[in-house]
Amino acid sequence: MKNEKIKIINLNLFYGIFQALRGINLEIYSNKITAIIGPSGCGKSTLLRQLNRMNDYIEGVRVEGRITMDNEDILHPAYDMINLRKKVGMVFQRPNPFPLTVFDNIAYGPRVHGIGDRKKLEEIVEKSLREALLWDAVSDRLNNSALELPLGQQQQLCIARLLAVEPEVILLDEPCSALDPISTLGIEELMRRLQNQYTIVIVTHNMQQAARASDYTAFMLLGDLVEHDETREVFTKPKEKKTEEYITGRFG
After folding, report:
1. Three-state SS for 229?
2. Closest C-alpha to 82, from 74, 92, 72, 93
3. Which CATH number do you get for residue 115?
4. Do 81 and 162 meet the contact criterion of CB atoms below 8 Å apart?
5. pTM of structure
6. How much is the average pLDDT of 114-123?
7. Strand partners for 90
8. Residues of 185-222 as b/e, b for ≥16 C-beta within 10 angstroms?
9. Is 195 within the bounds of a domain?
């Protein structure tokens, strides 16, 4: 059964006079992995960032339409942004651990939200690192700098840091673009494990990754949402000619 977590309704986004998103309508389902694919500049990262309103920080951005999460409009001026950032976390292309210890990276968010008890923080750190499949690798290095970890483990750490504040939705913006193939498969395995507890949206250039790791795929082109369906349908029986041309490598 498909339970709708996020609904995007006639979303338009402008950078000044340039329209980056054009009338997007899209449903994102709970505990599913949705991949957003398309060539560079098609608007997929812009769309992803709008799901936790990171575009608010860009000068000249104007947004029309609605995005509901659990039937609440997150674009409404009165929507609680602190609550949104807690509910919707984001991981970027390149790992960006804080220049702190492994422990303090994970404990950072809970501390911001008022948790100061050391024992409680230790429990959160261990739980988050276990969820991110990183505990065994770093349990004896919690007081080492996070910047000393290999890139793949840094990306897992960033995911663990996000899990520590107990989000409901995880946004991944090409999280494997800087990683080697083995680390990439590790992140994909992690996504599959996490989807039982979280709703995941991933932007990726990698067609194989979208096909392997997602339940639903949305194909974007020049700011338009061309097609959205179950991943196996998009990759084996696309409804739109442009979708077929893109996934078969004829452009993009």
Report:
1. strand
2. 74
3. 3.40.50.300
4. no
5. 0.93
6. 96
7. 171
8. bbbbebbeebbeebbbbbbbebbebbbebbbbbbbbbe
9. yes
Residue 250: pLDDT over 90: no
Task: Identify the H or E element spanning 53.
Answer: none
Distances (CA, A) of 57 to 31, 60, 62: 29, 9, 11
Residue indicated by tokens 């609605």: 66
Q: Cβ contacts of residue 19 below 8 Å, gap of 6+?
A: 12, 13, 223
User: Nearest-CA neighbor of 220 among 59, 43, 29, 31?
Assistant: 43
Residue 211: band (very low, low, confident or very high) from pLDDT cuts 50, 70, 90: very high
Say how many domains are in the chain: 1
- Answer yes or no: are the C-beta atoms of 20 and 223 closer than 8 Å: yes
Q: Residue 252 domain-assigned?
A: no
Q: How far is CA 113 from CA 117, 153, 164, in A?
A: 12, 25, 11
Our CA angle for 18, 21, 26, nearest 5°, is: 175
Query: How far apart are the C-alpha atoms of 99 and 160, rounded to whole Å?
Result: 16
**At which residue do the structure tokens 């339970």 appear?**
3
Mean pLDDT of 64-91: 94
Rounded to whole angstroms, how far apart are CA atoms 93 and 97? 12
55 inside domain: yes
Q: Is residue 187 part of a domain?
A: yes
Q: State residue 230's pLDDT score.
A: 97
Sign, CA dihedral 103-106-111-112, equals positive
For range 144-168, the mean pLDDT: 95
Q: Which domain holds residue 53?
A: 4-247
For residue 38, what is the DSSP state?
-
Helix axes 181-194, 151-163, angle to 10 degrees: 20
